[in-house]
Design goal:
Distance between the termini: 28 Å
Number of strands: 10
CATH topology: Rossmann fold
Radius of gyration: 17 Å
Strand order of the largest sheet: 1-2-4-3-5-6-9-10
Structural class: alpha/beta
Number of helices: 10
CATH class: Alpha Beta
CATH architecture: 3-Layer(aba) Sandwich
Oligomer: single chain
CATH superfamily: Alpha/Beta hydrolase fold, catalytic domain
C-alpha cells in the first residue's frame, strides 16, 4: 500500500483489518464489494485522506480480516460488523462510501447509524440490479478461486477479464489479493466459503426494502455509476436520485462495474466535490 496505516479492530467475534490514513476532523469509511478487499481503494485513499480520517475496511472473510468458521457472510452479518466498527472507533460526521455489495451494506449501516452520518456515496449499486451482470460478477470471483504459480499469473488472468484496468494497477491488485499457498504458488486471501454463500437475496421483497430505505435517507447522497456498467442501469440510477431527497448522480467514463479500478482518476473527480462539501467544514 502506498499510503495509510494497517490496523485491526475486534468486531464482535472476529478481528477485522483496515487501512487508515489522514487526520481530518471527520471520517470517511469505505466498504468494498463482493470478493474484494479494502485494497481496492488504495488509488483514491490519499485524495480522501487529504480531507478526512479515511478508513478502508476489509469485510469478514475478505482481504486480511479473519474468516468466519461458520461461514456467516450474508449482508446482515457484514452490516452488524460495520456498525460495530463505527461504534468501536467512535466515528461521527461520517461519510460512508460503498461499492457494489458494499453499497448495499452502506445503505443499511446508514439507516442504523443515522445520527452519525454526514453523507452517503453509493458506487454502482442499487435495487433492481441486472441479474445477468450480478451473475457475471459472482462467476468471476468463483473462477478466480484457484492456485496461481505467481502474482503475475493472477494479474494476467485478471487482465483478460477486466481490460479497462491499467497493467500497473492490476499487478498491485494481485499482490494485495493473494497469499502464499501452503503447498505451492498463491491463492486468494478470500475465504472460499464466501463463493458458496448467498450474500444477497435478489428478489422483489429485498428490492422493495432497499427502495424504502433510500426514500428515508435524510443526508446528502451521491450515486456513482460506471458508464459501461452491466450491473447498475442508468434508468435505475436515475430512479435512485429521484427517490432520495438530497441526491445526485455522477457517471464515470471509461468504466464498467469496477469503476474504482477501471478509472481511478475519473472516480476521484466524480466524488471529490461531494466529499469536500459534506463533512469537511
Amino acid at each position: 500500500m502506498d499510503s495509510g496505516l494497517s490496523a485491526a479492530v475486534q468486531a464482535r467475534e472476529l478481528v477485522l483489518r483496515l487501512r487508515r490514513a489522514g487526520g481530518g476532523r471527520h471520517s470517511c469509511l469505505m466498504i468494498h464489494g463482493f470478493g474484494e478487499g479494502g485494497y481496492v481503494w488504495d488509488r483514491v485513499l490519499p485524495a480522501i485522506a487529504s480531507h478526512y480520517d479515511a478508513i478502508a475496511l476489509d469485510l469478514r472473510g475478505h482481504g486480511d480480516s479473519e474468516w468466519d468458521a461458520k461461514a456467516r457472510y450474508d449482508v446482515q452479518a457484514h452490516v452488524e460488523d460495520v456498525v460495530h466498527v463505527i461504534r468501536m472507533l467512535d466515528l461521527h460526521r461520517l461519510v460512508l462510501v460503498g461499492h457494489s455489495m458494499g453499497g448495499e451494506i452502506a445503505i443499511h449501516v446508514a439507516a442504523e447509524c443515522a445520527d452519525r452520518i454526514a453523507g452517503l456515496v453509493i458506487v454502482d449499486f442499487g435495487p433492481s440490479l441486472n441479474p445477468e451482470g450480478l451473475a457475471m460478477v459472482r462467476a468471476e470471483v468463483e473462477a478466480a478461486n484457484r492456485v496461481y504459480s505467481s502474482v503475475e499469473e493472477y494479474a494476467s488472468w485478471l487482465s483478460a477479464r477486466r481490460p479497462l484496468i491499467a497493467k500497473d494497477i492490476l499487478l498491485s491488485l494481485a499482490k494485495c489479493a493473494l497469499r502464499p499457498h501452503p503447498d505451492e504458488g498463491f491463492r486468494l486471501k478470500l475465504d472460499p466459503a464466501i463463493t458458496r454463500s448467498q450474500c444477497r437475496k435478489s428478489d422483489a421483497a429485498s428490492d422493495a426494502d432497499l427502495w424504502s430505505l433510500l426514500s428515508r435517507m435524510e443526508w446528502p447522497a451521491l450515486v456513482v455509476r460506471g458508464a459501461g456498467s452491466a450491473v447498475l442501469s442508468r434508468n435505475v440510477a436515475e430512479r435512485m436520485i429521484e427517490t432520495m431527497p438530497y441526491a445526485r448522480l455522477e457517471t464515470v467514463p471509461a468504466a464498467g462495474h469496477g469503476v474504482i479500478l477501471d478509472n481511478p482518476k475519473g472516480f476521484e473527480a466524480a466524488i471529490r466535490p461531494f466529499l469536500i462539501s459534506n463533512g469537511c467544514s
